[in-house]
Write a structure and sequence with these properties.
Residues 14-120 form the Bacterial Pleckstrin homology domain. The protein has one helix at 110-121, and strands at 11-14, 32-37, 42-46, 49-56, 62-69, 73-79, 88-94, 98-104. Helix content is 10%, strand content 43%.
Length: 122
């Protein structure tokens, strides 16, 4: 599970192939919107939730999947990349759990991520 007390997460880069790790968890009417990967861990945005994948152990065969339904998000914050600082961030505040932060690197469309989350919250 995501360490909500640590409030940090890994640097992510867009990777459409990473979504394959969570296809077995999808509901019948749930669709993958986008996926991002760090060295081994990743996050997948679906039409219903955000699924964070924490790959564990030397072989990587053990995985922890944390599901964050959009309905549990009470607020979020987006920080876009700048001229010299190419990283961007997404902070999500969850009811009765706390906050989790995702850090993205590269050309991540934080506007599209923000619109997708807003569509479910507003």
């Amino acid at each position: 599970m995501i360490d909500f007390n640590n409030k940090g997460f890994f640097k992510l880069k867009q990777n459409s192939e990473y979504a394959e790790k969570i296809t077995a968890l999808l509901l019948d009417n749930e669709e993958i919107i986008d996926s991002y990967k760090s060295m081994r861990d990743g996050v997948v945005f679906t039409s219903k939730r955000i699924i964070a994948v924490n790959v564990q152990g030397l072989t990587g065969s053990k995985k922890d999947f944390t599901s964050i339904p959009y309905k549990n998000i009470v607020a979020y914050s987006v920080e876009t990349s700048g001229t010299f600082d190419l990283d961007s961030e997404l902070e999500i505040y969850l009811s009765s759990v706390g906050k989790v932060k995702f850090e993205f690197t590269g050309k991540t469309s934080m506007v599209e991520i923000s619109k997708h989350i807003s569509k479910h919250l507003l």
